[in-house]
């Protein structure tokens, strides 16, 4: 254990400070495709009964019209957030009219690309901005790849927590924004540690070792055939997070620097403002219709695909990078978790408990700056794990030496143990974080206990990824339909749906100015300091 981690643990273990750990926030975003009874992509519009995908705070769409996204409110305990996620799922199932939610991260059977409908958000300028952005994603990455789904885990520690650390480490409050800057740079340091150790999450929670053969039709790959309609890699943990996923040549060289918030923001802004010749050849319009928001490497900063992001809640009319510049980092968003096909809502409480301990470890442990070569090593460790994580004898690179993944994983879990103990002592959870830690330790000792191994075993037994996905989708549909919400809870969701539709209508009525002018204004508001 490093000196810094020992010192910070002792500080938080003090009776006067331990309660700070109760004040952090957790939130979950779950993406899931709507499918028909045969496990094929739904061709229907986003159900109006669910409300407006533009303005609803908990139910929207991600890329495709059929790709739902459920968003929980931020809660102090992950158990409460999961209860919220469960309620959204149960409500959605009352409005799906025979459709189901796909149980996997990798897509179900998809129609030809020109038949996959991009998310529609109405005729307002902001709604059209969201739609055209997705047209640009289709142009740049293809529609099938945009139908991959995942779990996003939003995590924050309270400002009082960072203020306590700052005072204990001699950060002077006299300097303007000193505490804000300390908090931001602490989150950035946390992200660096996540880069070092996130391969562990892919080993423990990766659940996409197989996919439908049609998904890679026309693309070169090194996957093996499990059956006529199924491809896999025998030791893969998460093909979703491999080089088969979200990638293109324009982003290949984009590596935002996470050695400071300033360098991170600067590199993203460069990508948002730097033209990319192949996109320039296409232009922003074709036959008078918008096809992408810009011809730059990124249309907007959220196009940058990353396993983790620093975030700040944005204000009306504000861009994400402006929020970070003006007010600093507020929370982090973990984006590398696969959908757990064995869980009705796609993620388990046990996973959440371990994530809380893991992320607290990343926040408190020493986090040296990462040079370019070290960054390549971390990326290579991650890539090895997602494609070969369960391979016997697999090694990763640590301190210029090759070490067995299982040995390093076991060591990391022991380093995280004091954080799990601290969380259990404060939350009075009777050992739930330690129980989750033990469950992960068992996966390290026996790779067959990992979700990826369990998925592969079930797919082998059924002979098809599609049959396994449909089986799990039907199972979860029965579970969620079988225990409907209480009438008062359902009525609350109904009211949220009506209010979101009214809000969208009000936005459309109040719109002024052309869409061309709106995009121009949006694209020009990329410099920090603009409000």
TrEMBL record:
It comes from the Bacteria. Gene3D superfamilies: 3.30.590.20. It is an enzyme of class 6 (ligase). Its EC number is 6.3.2.2. SUPFAM superfamilies: Glutamine synthetase/guanido kinase. One of its GO terms (cellular component) is cytosol. It catalyses: L-cysteine + L-glutamate + ATP = gamma-L-glutamyl-L-cysteine + ADP + phosphate + H(+). Pathway: Sulfur metabolism; glutathione biosynthesis; glutathione from L-cysteine and L-glutamate: step 1/2. The chain crosses the membrane at residues 197-216. PANTHER family: GLUTAMATE--CYSTEINE LIGASE. Belongs to the glutamate--cysteine ligase type 1 family. Type 1 subfamily. This is Glutamate--cysteine ligase. It comes from Massilia forsythiae. The lineage of its organism: Bacteria, Pseudomonadati, Pseudomonadota, Betaproteobacteria, Burkholderiales.
